[in-house]
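Protein: FAD-binding PCMH-type domain-containing protein
Species: Panicum hallii var. hallii
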Amino acid sequence: MATSKNMARELAIFFFLCCTVFLPSLAGSDDFLQCLSQTIPSDLVYQQRSSSFESVLRSSVQNPRYATNTTVRPLCVVAASGVPHVQAAVRCGRAHGVRLRVRSGGHDYEALSYRSVRPEVFAVLELSRLRVVDVRPAEAAAWVDAGATLGELYHAVGTADRRLAFPGGACPTVGVSGYLSGGGIGLMMRKYGIGADSVVDARVVNADGDLIGSVASTDLDLFWAIRGGGGESFGVVVAWRLRLSMVEETVTVVNIERTLDEGAAALVAKWETLILQPYLPDLTIRVVVQDHHAFFQTLFLGRCSRLLRAMRAFFPELGMAPADCREMTWLRAMAFIGLGAADAPAEGLLNRTNNLGTYVKNKSDYVRRGIGRAGWEGIFQQHLSRYGAGLMILEPHGGAVSAGVPDFATPYPHRQGVLYNVQYVVFWLDEADGAAAAAAAGWLGGLYGHMEQFVTSNPREAFANYRDLEIGENVVGGDGVTTYESGRVWGEKYFMGNFRRLAAVKGRVDPGDYFRNEQSIPPLLQRF
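Structure follows.
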């Protein structure tokens, strides 16, 4: 059996013979910019000396933690307005030692789509100008450019045909590409699966700068990997073909809030018991717990009368009444849920304005066994009620997410037996207020530690779309390539048994590790 040193030497030899070694170089910066100028108009390349550089860089930033001068700055922002610009940026970057960070919506929780944690020469490839949504009602399908937001997708689909929908998330400013590349959990997944389950094709610019016009028909492994394997690891997806879902012309939205004194802990515990039952796939009840309150946000793909019958049969404790119901089209429902007002116009979904009002930190977990009333009472009393600036969002799974769908169908592995995903969120107002930042971090760490007894273990599962560098970061080896072992530390929490296959795909399509960040898939290089 070969020793570990011999194996490492053999892999290094294979890498040298078969791959283009990527060597970052400050000296290549000017050559990179000159290369871009030959293909991309100068008004689409914002260098640091440009008066518009800061505003363009901040235009998609959703968390002010990463909008300050302490963040490692990119060499430039390339605001691609067409696929040839994307190809040129990749080819110039490869040729002159400048990596790309690829950004669409800017909701990346660790901002790895537009910043580097450690000093390096990189550029931001901004996709927000690539935002065409081509809905084809007769086919119940759409081609969506990677820079479009979920709100823009919803608006295009809902205005084309009020019976069509897409099973996306609650936040309309999230980029479609980021949402799908992490798998995508949302308000209709119990009926139609995660967002990535509705992807039927994609166009990708690979690490050589070549456009693959139909990944589904040319590279099934790559097609598998991009549908939930995390963003910015395998290439630049420039467009997605989506299967759209049929819904009734009238859906129902209900928001009910209950306090701890009104039995919030018992209600959340009862909610846990309903998720894996083989009924009501049309019903999603998302729960937000904060302070002394539990907020039950319901989307039902049908009329109020049918919803009330179901609630009386299965969840009478919540006390839902006719007056709680709001009937509307699916499009208006997404505006209501995403914008927070029952009278919010559908056009509001087109607003791409970023949110720099509060500082945010997020973490995630998965629950496979109900926590129960006593557990929830402890969570409320020991954590939630002691810090009003923190909350938990519980996203129910079951239904089409897991019904007959194996964990390896896509890279998103949190299917069989999962009750729900937990997103922890903590806010504070001023990064300069060290006490406030420390209090927020302390509360989040305390709650996350307390939850260990209730959530999955070995690994403690996490959601790739809620990226969290605290669970691990990549280490780059002496050959300039991310080590597989360092990637496993965080990768198996996001992808579990699918991580090795993702790394094998990466090793084939990007063996030189050009598309790399602190939590990108490392290349698993195969020997022949």
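Remarks: Residues 133-246 form a domain with the Uridine Diphospho-n-acetylenolpyruvylglucosamine Reductase; domain 3 fold (CATH 3.30.465.10).
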